[in-house]
Amino acid sequence: MKKRWLAGALAITLTAAYAADKGVEQMSSLEGRKAPAFSLEGSDGKTHSIKDYAGKTVIIYFYPRDNTPGCTKEACGFRDLNKKLLDLNAVVLGVSKDSLASHDKFIDQFELPFVLLSDPDTKMMQAYGAFGEKTMYGKTSMGTIRSTVVVGPDGKVIKHWGKVKNAEDHPAEVLEFLKTL
Which CATH number fits domain 27-179: 3.40.50.300, 3.40.30.10, 3.50.50.60, 3.40.350.10? Predict the structure, then answer.
């Protein structure tokens, strides 16, 4: 038992050291903090920043890649709930490393009614704790971490899902959270 605990502690320490060495910030919850600033090109041809959404509730969801099964289910979930989210004065922004051309195809194919932002250098994702070390099918790699933040009208993060477990059900979870505000 003691050996297992030591091995786990060593693994956590090495993971944090690796991430720090690679310039990736290990971030706990952003809740209560001012939302990190960003300036990214959107699928609507405009440059977007968090300041553009002052006075609104902003749902920013980070996803690994356009047109993959989990990402498509999540995007379509937000699409299907978009009217209810708008009724709550909430705006949805999706963020991935994909190009704007890829985003355009994804939007057209699934009739997504919200803007997708392109973060090819992952600066925004890193600022929001959405890029770093992850394990998939037993293999550890650096990549986009499926996560979501809700930024309140005052520019502060009011909810942070650091790791979304179920992409398909997550949009409904976000809606339920917003209904409690």
Answer: 3.40.30.10
